[in-house]
Amino acid sequence: MKTKHTPDPWEIDKTMNACGWDIRAGGIWIGTANGDHYIEGERPGGGFPGNTEGKANGILMAGAPKLLEACEKARDEIGAPSPEYPANIANAFDILNTIIAEYAGEEPQEQEN
Questions:
Q1: In three state form, how does the secondary structure of the chain look?
Q2: What is the pTM of this model?
Q3: CB-based contact 49:43 (threshold 8 Å)
Q4: Measured between alpha carbons, how far is residue 104 from residues 15, 18, 67, 69, 113 in Å?
Q5: In this predicted model, which residue has the larger pLDDT, 95 or 44?
Q6: Which of 9, 23, 55, 94 has the most crowded CB, counting CB atoms within 10 A?
């Protein structure tokens, strides 16, 4: 599949800037996973995660292209299930197919009848 997102690898900066951890793909800024803006652990008005949570969010964001690629490979390995497939295989295909369509902007693949 041709991706619509900025090509990977995406990486999280190793050190926190004034707001959080930047996510980059080469020299392209993707976004920032916010951490504390005030006192560590404080969420004034519920606005920002703490530093531990913010960094974990950034790691997950940076891993998104690889997670998407793994889902696509798993879906393609299963192949569109036919009626003869066991239910758990068909269910796995449906789960992968739905999540890929939702987050990668693809049309879901059709199952064989």
A1: CCCCCCCCCCEECCCCCCCEEEEEECCEEEEEEECCCCCCCCCHHHCCCCHHHHHHHHHHHHHHHHHHHHHHHHHHHHCCCCCCCCHHHHHHHHHHHHHHHHHHCCCCCCCCC
A2: 0.73
A3: yes
A4: 29, 31, 11, 10, 25
A5: 95
A6: 23
